């Protein structure tokens, strides 16, 4: 850090532009938090960070002191701003709040990736970006006010914006508009810094011209690089003439660069359109709850009908609407053995579970608001009873903190779970939206929707045959769906295979579904009928899934407590329609007497016919159940490290593409200068080649910061640059222009070699960063390059 104090104008410029750019970048945080408190957090971090940086510049604190003050401020204001629920009286930090604040710095980043958005002020999830904004503000403003590389400060808001996009949702709001506005703010900030440099140089040069005293012309410390660069050797007259148009030229340069960048980005968006979904960091994080690690609830359907579970109170519900069904899990993945909850590894959106911060935004769901109180009895397992589309859940009791932090929800399927499972005595209150559903007789009017569900690997042939039989007289998709459901209800009989009921084998593997459709009497229960109906709906083109849950019998009054027993277990289907979204349909036949089986004709049985080889021995049921899961895991489930590596590679590719887009305008400038030089050197006439060489040198001087008067002669330009070589080049060019004869090719080549040497000397006198800036400078492409200046007598110089 330098020891010079920044001027008030430079402080106001950088502080104001940092606040503006940070505010624009923070717009990308809104989808993550979606709470007005975010404005308070961003403003507080900006104010505290700016105060620290300004005090550090004024009092000339060393870097370690600035760091310690920043840490102290973080601990002092972090709890009321980033963990407001743990602040005493909303202002004073508590011990618990300080612990959450410190832990949030380390763990908050991953927690943001494993929770549903938006998170509001839930727990300590504001801590990560509060910390980032505070640190970026302190670092950025300190760099701008206390170092020679003040231009680096403009990158801080861009870092915040990129981080917000990486931790945000798959579909950010207004990404193009916010990106362009932020880019404009950063370019204007950099341009204003450059304009400030030039105006300060004008004042310094005037002071040098009038007093000759360097100390009287001292300017802001951040100009020290430039005062030692060739810009510091500009003549007084040249600076006076060039300073008047510096701001205009800087603004135009900024507009040109921004226009080129915007055009390149727009063209890239159309030409290089993404072929898949947008990737964010939350896609690469291994979710804490994976439904594939648990047994499908449908596979234990019959257990609820056995003693004593069928009469045990699994849980009680208060406020259940009349006729409402309680959902446990939505199952959309069928492998021919088990219908299960989707798995993120197989590409199913229903397999990704996230934490619920405080509520889900269900404003897009049309229906009635429902509030239920649930108390757990004999129910066990990870699945949490819910209804409709969940908005919020609040646990009660001694384990409230543990249950709340381990509660996960999948909004695609409406399935909730608690890692570790529920236990007797747990209770919670949930609010949800019970979606509007079409009338039962309106099923025939439905058309298939566009919801994505995993493909079915095995559909028994008997399912296809039955669909064709049931829908032979139907025409539209909805009519076929209604006909299929009517066929199942009319042909089917219900038996759970317990007590004195007729035999009914449990399970819903492909062979059980084939048996259901080919036996003389179609006997099964909700487990088989729901799976069969879902497979048939898939055959008809409807996205479909099976829902496992409970359907309490009898009417319920408002505020009445409903006791749910094992005998209330049920399963139904949901089909996705273009009109209503997911529509719940009960495909189960009504309970009725099952007729006795009609004996087969003995003569038919005894009649000898072609000898058929006995079927191959079928493996044990456990083998049938287990084999597909092993094969699926081995074939389809990549290692978590592979997913992370793939996501990292995608991000690297995206960042590389973004870098190319950002560098495209600068590359265009370099290519324009290369083409200009080539045209000058390959001019058909030797005189044009010599004058072109002079213009190449003059443009190089402009790009390196020299500012001769607008009507300067070649000798005056050489005087501004300084050195004997420049003066000799000016004299040689003047002699060639005013000589009576055409110069020869050798002389033209000699002039070009001299120009190359002069340009090399200009580069050798400055730093590498100055050489890069000169190569992309627009000074020689603006009002100087290619202008026709006339000398007395009208001849072009």
Automatic annotation (TrEMBL):
<feature type="transmembrane region" description="Helical">
    <location>
        <begin position="36"/>
        <end position="58"/>
    </location>
</feature>
<keyword id="KW-0472">Membrane</keyword>
<keyword id="KW-0812">Transmembrane</keyword>
<feature type="transmembrane region" description="Helical">
    <location>
        <begin position="125"/>
        <end position="143"/>
    </location>
</feature>
<dbReference type="InterPro" id="IPR038765">
    <property type="entry name" value="Papain-like_cys_pep_sf"/>
</dbReference>
<feature type="transmembrane region" description="Helical">
    <location>
        <begin position="648"/>
        <end position="672"/>
    </location>
</feature>
<feature type="region of interest" description="Disordered">
    <location>
        <begin position="612"/>
        <end position="639"/>
    </location>
</feature>
<dbReference type="InterPro" id="IPR021878">
    <property type="entry name" value="TgpA_N"/>
</dbReference>
<dbReference type="InterPro" id="IPR052901">
    <property type="entry name" value="Bact_TGase-like"/>
</dbReference>
<feature type="domain" description="Transglutaminase-like">
    <location>
        <begin position="518"/>
        <end position="589"/>
    </location>
</feature>
<feature type="transmembrane region" description="Helical">
    <location>
        <begin position="65"/>
        <end position="83"/>
    </location>
</feature>
<keyword id="KW-1133">Transmembrane helix</keyword>
<protein>
    <submittedName>
        <fullName>Transglutaminase superfamily protein</fullName>
    </submittedName>
</protein>
<dbReference type="Pfam" id="PF01841">
    <property type="entry name" value="Transglut_core"/>
</dbReference>
<feature type="transmembrane region" description="Helical">
    <location>
        <begin position="251"/>
        <end position="273"/>
    </location>
</feature>
<dbReference type="Pfam" id="PF11992">
    <property type="entry name" value="TgpA_N"/>
</dbReference>
<feature type="transmembrane region" description="Helical">
    <location>
        <begin position="150"/>
        <end position="168"/>
    </location>
</feature>
<dbReference type="InterPro" id="IPR002931">
    <property type="entry name" value="Transglutaminase-like"/>
</dbReference>
<feature type="transmembrane region" description="Helical">
    <location>
        <begin position="7"/>
        <end position="30"/>
    </location>
</feature>
<feature type="transmembrane region" description="Helical">
    <location>
        <begin position="174"/>
        <end position="192"/>
    </location>
</feature>
